[in-house]
Design goal:
mainly beta; two-stranded parallel ribbon; 30 strands; 64% strand; flat
Length: 342
């Protein structure tokens, strides 16, 4: 019995020794690759890593890249740009200024032993009020915040964390996990894997989300796509909207092409052309060309038009169908009714 206990004890020690050696080897490899290596981190670790001011007039673009940190841009009464960074004591901040650029980088740190350690890691960029700069902001784990009136061109990316932006000029935003909220922009290219997208008014917008809904204000020209989630827009000029599973809702639009596999489509007012289709769900809109495989179609007349309607399995009811009207509307459904009323 004692011999068995000794053998088990030796085996446990051997496993621990192999594990410790493996961790040390990984640490050495990471250090040779240029990564900072920390031996031990335990308990509350937040400390001020960096604080520096820069002349605002000499900087047109600010770039911040962090391995694991929140990034916040805030307005202040200062005449300079001030950067403050917080993190674990073994982390370092690299800063570089030149040719109108300010670059702030927080490289990753490899911790050999991390026991119950917590840290409020963040990089704060203070800019003078009314000073709009161009930004490139990236973080692997953390949120990004930029307020109104501080940004011209914005490029933001977060692997895991929400993004909240005020009004700006041109926007490119990407997140793998976390909601993206943006104000009014001239152009916006937004992609999100898991989390919704919400914007204000856009002159031109391409919004894509894999899992989550899309909400936006007025969009002059846009393409809105969601694999799993609803799409809701206020007013638009020329819009394409697609969703695999979810509802599409538009208040007023001039030209609209909308497709949904499983969900309904509702448009309150059409000023021009509309082409809508759904595999499973109803369609409710004014003048348009539409088809539904499984679902009813309900149209409310705004102007006089002739309706060319066909239902494979379902009833058709059309009020005052004028064959001499200049506008012709086509409605098709495989399984469902068609109703046109005043």
């Amino acid at each position: 019995m004692k011999t068995g206990i000794k053998i088990a004890f030796i085996i446990v020690l051997a496993i621990l020794a192999i594990g410790l050696a493996s961790v040390m080897v990984i640490g050495i490899i990471q250090q040779e690759r240029g990564m900072n290596v920390s031996i031990l981190a335990i308990g509350y670790q937040t400390t001020k890593l960096f604080e520096q001011e820069y002349p605002a007039g000499e900087i047109q673009k600010i770039e911040v890249k962090a391995q694991s940190s929140k990034i916040e841009v805030i307005e202040s009464d200062t005449a300079n740009i001030k950067v403050t960074a917080y993190g674990m004591k073994d982390e370092v901040i690299k800063a570089n200024q030149g040719d109108g650029y300010l670059t702030i980088e927080k490289p990753p740190v490899f911790h050999l032993f991390l026991f119950c350690a917590w840290c409020d890691e963040k990089i704060i960029v203070e800019v003078p009020k009314g000073s709009a700069k161009d930004y490139t902001l990236e973080t692997t784990s953390g949120s990004i915040r930029v307020p109104d009136g501080t940004a011209g061109t914005l490029q933001v990316k977060s692997t895991s964390g929400s993004i909240r932006l005020g009004n700006g000029g041109n926007l490119t935003a990407q997140s793998s996990s976390g909601k993206i909220t943006a104000g009014n922009f001239q152009t916006a290219e937004i992609k999100n894997t898991s989390g919704g997208i919400e914007t204000g008014n856009l002159k031109e917008g391409n919004l894509t989300v894999t899992s989550g809904s899309i909400r936006c204000g007025n969009v002059e020209t846009g393409k809105l796509e969601s694999s799993s989630g609803s799409i809701r827009m206020e007013n638009g000029t020329e819009i394409t909207a697609r969703t695999t599973s979810g509802r599409i809702q538009v208040q007023e639009v001039q030209r609209l092409t909308a497709r949904t596999t499983s969900g309904s489509i509702a448009v309150e007012k059409i000023d021009g052309y509309c082409n809508l289709s759904t595999t499973s769900g109803g369609i409710k809109v004014e003048n348009s060309e539409m088809s539904a495989k499984s679902g009813s179609i309900h149209l409310k007349k705004k102007n006089d038009f002739f309706t060319d309607a066909h239902a494979t399995s379902g009833s058709i009811k059309i009020e005052d169908n004028n064959r001499k009207a200049e506008v012709e509307l086509k409605a098709r459904t495989t399984s469902g009714s068609i109703r046109v009323s005043k």
